[in-house]
Each structure stands twice: as structure tokens, then as C-alpha cells.
Amino acid sequence: MTDPFLRAKELDEKYRFLNAVAQDTTSTGAGRLQGYSVSVKDCICTKGIETKAGSRILEGYVPPFDATVVSRCRSEGAVILGKTTQDEFGFGTFNVNTPYNVPLNPHDLERTCGGSSGGAACLTAVADFPHLALAESTGGSISCPASFCGVVGVTPTYGRVSRWGLIDYANSLDKIGCMAKTVGEVALLLSVIGGPDEYDSTVLDVPEEDFADLEISVEGVKMGVPEEYFAEGVDDGVKDSIWVALKVLEGEGADLSEVSLPHTGVALSAYYIIAMAEASTNLAKLCGLRYGLQPEEGGNFDEYFSRVRAEGFSEEAKRRIILGTFTRMAGYRDAYYLKALKVRTRVIEDFKRAFEEVDVLAAPTMPVVAPRFNEIAEMEPIQQYMMDVLTVAPNLAGVPMISIPCGEVDGMPAGLHIMADHLEETKMLGVARAWEVLR
Amino acid sequence: MSAVMGLEIHVHLLTESKLLCGCSTDNEGRAPNENTCPICMGFPGSKPRLNRRALEHGVKIAKALNCRVLPEVRFSRKGYFYPDMPKNFQITQYEVPLGEGGHLLLEGRRIGITRVHIEEDPAKLVHIGGDITSAKYTLIDHNRSGIPLAEIVTAPEITSPKEARLFLNKLSLILEHLGAFDPCGEGSIRIDANISLEGGQRVEVKNITGFRSVEDALNYEIIRQRSMANMGIAVERETRHYDAETNTTSTLRKKEQEEDYGYIVEPDLVVIDVTDDWIKELEDEMPELPDARIQRFVEQYGLPPLQSGIIVNAGLDMSEFYEECCRLPGDPKEVARWVVTFLMKSLNYEGLSLRDSKVNPETFVELLELMDEGTISERLAKELIKEYVSTGLSPRKLVEERDLGLMPLDEIRAVVESVIENNPKAVDDFRDGEPKVVDFILGQVLRRIRARGRPTKIMEQIVEKLKSASVAQ
Amino acid sequence: MTEEWVIDRRLLEHLAQVSRLKLTDDELDKFTEQLQVILQAFREIEEIDTEGVEPSFHPIDVRNVLREDAVKAWKWDPLENSRHVEGRYLKGPRIT
Questions:
Q1: Mapping DSSP to helix (H, G, I), strand (E, B) and coil, where does residue A138 land?
Q2: Catalytic residue among A39, A41, A137, A181
Q3: Would you tell me which residues 50-69 of chain C have a C-beta closer than 8 angstroms to some C-beta of chain A?
Q4: Domains of chain A: which residue ranges?
Q5: pLDDT band, very low/low/confident/very high, at C4 (cuts 50, 70, 90)
């Protein structure tokens, strides 16, 4: 039997997906996750294991408590493996925005794993022992790396899973989700981590659901194909791969129809404005007091805070803090923060309207396959943001989504994105399972 | 030059646990940072959980101040960096308050209440090696972080520093009646006072503790601003700090340095519906407020309004004490007279609050009973009460043990005769019509008998004796 | 209206101060340019008709979550992760 810790460290030498390894290698023994190792994205608190959210400003921080999702895994018999690397605080689409490990795509080491949960996707792809990954999505950070690395990634309905212990990026957008090699396994992990939690006031008042007993469901399922998701910016090779899948599913009884989500384009701006506004407040607590980076004292508090934060945050974090601060300043707040929140309502309406007609939506997860690192280095920030165009809208709307491997372009995996209405994970998992079986 | 003043009051709400976490609010005797958890210390990954009772207190306060209570409760993040802020933002209510558009009745005048809302308290800072402007470093204690506060903002309708103090007294009493706050708790109420002269720039004096200090700070500001105006110097809009020791204010922050708080809605809390039913439930729970109590004492006990006001305004303790005394046999009007005229004075003199004294209704009414029975004189009672408030010893027992009961009249007569014998000049003065001689003898007699006699009766005896003595000579 | 969508270097310096970030001159220059581009891209939200639309602070309506007022002490060492302490106090920088 492979020792998952040794094996993970071995693989990490080559693929660089770990930020920290757990010292405690024990499990409680019995439960639904018995026999599994669970890796935890760096932004999810693990008691006793350094948790940095990919940032220097939290270097050395050892949480005194487990996130709810982690304690649920532990009590179901899982072994917590360690922390997977990520873009700092979730700020990124390629997992390059971090002073720590930048994970390499197992299909081509010169390409990105995607982000921000790049480490989770990478390990999921290469693990040759029973492994499940806890990850997190704000604007697509589970779907994107799952798509780029050729694994399954599920982002549940906002409020399905407790965020207690999740180091916040944007509180009204963050969702903890799962990655694994198979749909069955993500469904298993989702069943364990979901459900009410008194420590998170935004958790939905719905009972725990068991998704593990999946029905392969595609016969008669109404599948909407949003026209905006096949527009110009999407790579032809990717489009083709998706259409192949859709045709196959149609052949098995799916009822395809074209739908429109007219606010898809503008969702990107609305998303970033809201996310950055919230993030800039979340990151304010990181100032060299109580935990993390706490350099030599000196200066008054303005000087000390400014110095620590300049040292501890990466460039992208600084950009987002500044932009986020800007969008909520007096005089700008109405035009940015409040306006973006109203646009969000429109985006949600788009999805609600679509789901009156169809059961699920199907589209490419990402507009491209994993870019090369040297291509990414040439990108301006705005170009990087635009990569999220297909994932931000459903994330903004808080609907559940799953990305599942679907064909290849130039030897790199593409991802099929299935989305469902709030709390309709079962429908979406059923379709994903069907494709998994059929492909 | 007329002055326009407003107040912003922060009150510690009486709850078991903090506003957003289950930590205790009781910090008495705790080591620094002992009463904390990841939530109130702003640890990454922690999320707030709203305390129902704090919200209920807030609604009751809003109603007691005649505010319109808003149907939806939302919270905001008010962002600013400071060492006492565990998250470098404060969870408060910005977009929508809990209540608005209310008023407090002060001596027949309405002082507008602009808004009432709840928020969390920051940590406590200790400045080491100096004061806030000169310290070398700061020590931070998060026991206080997250304590629930109600913020009450008045309209700029207060017209004098004295009125500010009276306003605060009344507000404090209302809150005390509501059970929303404990006036004796350390730092349980903090005030920011705003003042502008003759339509000039507004100056804010922050974080004043003590109602007298508010009056003093505002008086100082009036003097300062007037003298600046006389010298032709413009008063700048700024935030100042009040130093109680020197009774002066000094600059803390100028206008350009004022923070832009960058408010967003608090995304880790959800909206709360304040339904009419819930408000009605809370209103039914609300105890009697000061104005209503003053009126009731007038009607129920036949007290003059002024006297009723004195008892109620002395605090919840006092009016409850009074009522308990009235439940015992005796005349409520007499009780009132003794409470107002002698008890309160004695407590003041001994520097005791009712709560700290050993006074209780049963032993207090003994004093009145003893006078009624004729066992002691009123004068003796006035003496005894001074001792009573600090010892709480049963007056009845005291009188017995020390043999302080009224002296029998024939014993007094013997003393009167003895005093007059020792003061032969008094007889001559009396014959000559000297008016003060009776009082003089009375004083001597009372001293000798240790006030164990009724002055009127003694005076009768003195006059009688002096008459007979002057005739005899 | 147009001014709202402009970030110049002076505004950037102000924002850096408000968010307690000490930026180098290079960063200030670079950010001014980058953020300007990003803001222009965000401008598209101006075009969207949101007349009479309520803002969505959450994507799903969750309401009325309250905690009963009861003490539940947390057993932990709050200073375990702190480097600057004095006794049981956290040690922080001076105010001015």
C-alpha cells in the first residue's frame, strides 16, 4: 500500500503542488472517507498545519482550529495530507501569483495547472493513491484548474457548504468544493462536507444531502446551451470538443436547446468589482499583528502596517486591494460597488429564467486549454481577468457547477461545464456521470 | 455667539455574550486576552454570529426613544486601520440604522434622536511610556473586542453644555430602566460631543467618559472657539481629544486626515426581518420608563411631581427602593420626604451610592417607625441616618443598645433647670426680652441630653422655667 | 460622470495610504497604468439598465440567522501565533 505522504512528497518534487505537509498522519479510522487522503487548499484552515493561503503575509500561521469541512473529513475517517498551493488568496487564474510553489501541468510541464486551486487539480491528476481534494472557488477557481488538468471539479451552490475556517477572498462569492478523478468521488466528498453549520450564518437552511448514490441521468434531461459561451473568444478546438460531447449526450436522450444569458459579458466586470471590494476589506486584518508575518517593530502603526503589508502581499494582491478600496470609496461607491451588485441581480435573473426552460446548462469550462507559462508572463492583468469569462457568471449567481474532462486540444485537456439551478446538484451530477460513462 | 451641540453616545449593552461570538462579556478580574476566540480576535477564516439579545436591546432602545424601527436589519463593514481593530474594519450599521427619527423629552423640550444602531466595540489599548500622543508602544487587550454597543446619535439640538449633561442623565436613566445597560460598569458609556459656534465649522471631541466631563469639555470648547473668533482665527473642522486632568481639549485629527470608511454590506451576516409582531413582543416586555414612573408615583402615592422626579431621577435603584419601602406599613409621603431630604443627602455626604450602602427597606422604615412611636426625635433620626447608611445596622437595635430613646419629660426638666442654673445671665436676658436666649438654652440642653428630646417640648419647659426664674429674682 | 472612471497617480497614492500599502515609485507608475486599463474595461457596467433593480448582496436569499445569547468559552491560547507580546498583552506599535 502506497504511503500517501511519501508518495505525495515524491510527486511534489516534480509537479510542485504542495505548500505544507501534515505531521499527523493518523485518521479516526471509520467513516465514508475511510482509506482516502484528503488534500486541502492552502486557504482552508487546518489545525496544526501551516495555512498561508499562498501568501507570505501568513507565513508561519498555524490555525488553532479546523475549518468545518476539514473536521467533517476527519470525522469520516479521512487522513489529511497537507496544503495544496494556490494563487495568493485566490487572486488568479493560473496559480502563478504566489511566492510559493507554482504547480506544473502534468500533461505538459511548461503549462499552467490553472487557478486559483492549481495545486489541488495538479495533485488530483497525478495521485496514484486514493485521494480527494478540498478546493475553493470564487470566480471559477475549481472549474478552471479542473478543466486545465483533466480532472473533475465541483463547485456547489453558494451556502451549501460551510465557510467557517475558509480564509476569505470574497464572502458572498466563496464556495468550498471538491476535486477528484471521478464524478462519484467528488459526489462522495461533497456529501461529507455539505450541510448546516451554526458557525457560518450564510449557510442555507437545507438538510445534508447524500449525492454519492448517483443516478446516471441524461434521458429526457433538458440541456440548455448558452449561445454567449460559444462566442468569438472561445478557442475552436475547445468548442469542437464540447460539441462532440453534447451530441453524444443528445444521442443518449438529452434534449438540447439554445438559451441566452445576455449578461454573460458584463458579469466579468461586476464580478471583479464585487470580489475586489469584499477582498480589500477581508485583507485588512493582515497587518503584522497576532499571526503570520510579524517583522521587527518600528514606526507608528501606520508605518508598521504599511511596511508589513507591502512586504507580505504580492503584486496582484496589492492591485486588488487598491482597486477594491477604490470601488467602495465615497463618491465612487454608487457607480461601482452598488451598480455591480445590481448587475449581479440581472445575472442571477438570466440563470433563473434559463432554468425555467431547462434542467441544466452545458458549455465549455474555459475558453482555452492551459496556456504556457511564457504566454502568461506576457499577459496584462486585464487579459488574465478575461480568461474567467465563462466561469464568473455562474459563480456570481451562486449556482452549482461541475467541470468534467472532455476531449483534448493539442494534447491538452478541455473541460465540459454542467451547471444547474440553486440546490440542484443532483441533476448536474447525473449528467456529468452520464458523460463520464459515455466518453 | 450661539452654540449648536450634538452628542454621539456609545453604550455597552447588557448581554451574557459578545455581539458576534460566544465569548463572555464579563471581563471583571480577567487576564488580558483571556476572554477571546478567533472571531473577536479577527483570525483568518473566522465568521461573525449575531447575538439575538443585543438586537432586542437595540430595538427596545429605539422604541424607548420614540424612533421608527426599520423593518430590515443589515450590517456594514466600516473600514479603518487602528491597533484596537482586530479586523481593521468594524461591524456596524451604516446603510440602514435600527431606528431613526426619534426624540427624548428633556424638561418639556424635544431633543431629536437621529439614529440608533448596534455595533461591536474595539479592543482596549494601553499606551506605554506616555499618553496616546507620546507613547513608545501600545499594549492590546481583546477582552473588550466585540462587546455589543448601542450607538445613539442626537440631532444638533442641544443648546448648552449643561443641557448636554442633563440629556445624558436622562438617557442613562432610560437605558437603565430598560435593563439595556449598567450605569456602574466601567467604561459602560462613552460620549463624542460635537459643537459649532454661530454656524461655524464643526468640532468633535471624542471618547469622553463621565457626564460632567462632557459639560466641561463643551464649556472649554466654547471658550476656546470664542477666543479664536475674537482674534480673527477661523475654527477648523477637526476631531479633538479631551483631557480630564487638565480640563482641556487638543487636536487628534484634522479634516484632511479624516478616514474614508469605504462601507460595504457585511457579507458574512444575513438580513434580519424586524416584524411588527416581534416589535410588539419586545414592547410588551419593556419595563416602566422614567417619565411614566414619575407620573405614576404622583398618582399612586400622592407625591408632588418635583419630589417624584427627584426620586426617579436618582436612579432605578432609588425608585425601586422607594417602592419597596412603600410596601411596608407607613405613609408613602413621609417615606418620600425622608428619602429625598435625608437619605439622599446622607448617601451623598458619605460618598456612597445606594447600591454600595448597607441601606435596605426594612431597616430604613424603622427610622420612620421610631419617630412615629415617639421613641426618638426627628433630630436624632437625622443624626442616626448618617451612621445608618454606612453600617446598615437596625436603627431600632441601635436606639436600644445606646439608650437613645427620648428622655422622659421630668428628666429633661431636671436638665433644663440645671442648665439655667449654670447660666444665670440667661435669666436676666430673658427678662430684658433678649430673643435668642431660649434658643441658646435649648442648644445647651440638647447637647446634654444628646438630642433625646423634642425641641418644641423642651422649649416649652425652658420658657416656663425662665419665666418662673425671672419672676423669682 | 467621466471622472469616476479615472485613476491618476495622486488618487493611487491616496488609495495606497488608505489601505496601508507602502508602494514604490515603480509600483505607483505601473499600477496607475494597469488600473486605468482595468477600470476602462469595467466601464461596461454603466451601460446596463438597472432601473428599479435591487442589489444582490448574496446570490441566494438567506434571512434571520441569530445566535442565542449564551456564553461558550473557546479553549485556546490566543497568543500562540503572536510574535510581539508582553505578558498576556499583544504588543503593538505606538499610535503617533
A1: coil
A2: A41
A3: 50, 53-60, 62, 65, 67
A4: 4-193
A5: low
- Domain assignment present for residue C41? The answer is yes
Q: Which of A171, C8, C93 minimizes the C-alpha distance to B137?
A: C93
Q: Cα–Cα distance between A103 and A133 in angstroms, integer? A: 15
Q: Cell numbers of C67, please?
A: 445566535
In a domain, C15, yes or no: yes
Contact C56 A313 (CB under 8 A): no
| Nearest residue of chain B to residue C85 (CA atoms) | B139
pLDDT of residue B174: 96
Structural domains of chain C, count = 1
Residue C6 forms part of a structural domain: yes
DSSP A62-94: --SS--HHHHHHHHTTPEEEEEE--SGGG--SS
- Distance CA(A157)–CA(A224), nearest Å, equals 19
Known catalytic residue at A269: no
CATH number of A4-193: 3.90.1300.10
Which chain C residues touch B if contact means CB-CB below 8 Å? 18, 20, 57-58, 62-74, 76, 78-79, 86-96
Q: What is the pLDDT of residues B401-424, one digit of tens each?
A: 777 777 778 888 888 888 888 988
- Among partner residues A281, A289, A302, which is closest to B77 by beta-carbon distance? A281
A378 phi, psi to nearest 5 deg: -85, -15
- Residues of chain C with C-beta less than 8 angstroms from the C-beta of B23: 71, 73-74
Nearest residue on chain B to A325, judged by CA atoms?
Answer: B262
pLDDT greater than 60 at residue B280: yes
Render pLDDT for B8-35 as a digit per residue (tens, 0 to 9).
Answer: 999 999 999 999 999 999 999 999 999 9
pLDDT of residue B256 exceeding 70, the answer is no
CATH 1.10.10.410 residue window(s) in chain B: 409-472
C75 is a domain residue: no
All residues of chain A having their beta carbon less than 8 Å from the beta carbon of residue C45 are 266, 269-270, 273, 336, 339-340, 343
pLDDT classification of C1: cutoffs 50, 70, 90: very low
Task: Give the HSE-up count for residue A26: Cα atoms under 13 Å, Cβ half-sphere.
Answer: 3
Q: Which pLDDT tens digit goes with each residue over B194-227?
A: 999 986 789 999 999 999 999 999 999 999 999 9
- For A254-286, b/e burial (b = at least 16 CB within 10 A) is beeeebebebbebbbbbbbbbbbbbbbbbbbbb
Across the interface, whether the CB atoms of B43 and A291 are under 8 A apart is answered yes
Which CATH topology does B409-472 take? Answer: Arc Repressor Mutant, subunit A (1.10.10)
Positive or negative CA dihedral for B227, B233, B237, B238?
Answer: negative
Query: Distances in Å between the alpha carbon of B107 and those of B104, B111, B154, B170, B304?
Result: 10, 10, 16, 10, 16
SS3 A202: coil
Cα torsion angle, A198, A202, A205, A208, sign: negative
Spans of chain A below 50 pLDDT: none
Per-residue pLDDT tens over the stretch B114-156: 999 999 999 999 999 988 878 999 999 999 999 999 999 999 9
Cβ-nearest to B50 among A168, A201, A297: A201
Q: How far apart are CA B268 and CA B274, in angstroms?
A: 19
Catalytic residue, candidates A27, A37, A55, A116 = A116
Mean predicted lDDT score pLDDT of chain B: 91
The answer to whether A284 contacts B81, with C-beta atoms less than 8 Å apart, is: yes
Q: Beta-carbon neighbour count of residue B281 at 10 Å?
A: 12
The answer to whether B393 and B357 are in contact (CB under 8 A) is no
Q: Which residues of A touch B267 (CB under 8 A)?
A: 170-172, 202, 278
Asked if A116 is an active-site residue, the reply is: yes
How many Cβ atoms are within 10 Å of B338's Cβ, its own excluded? 22
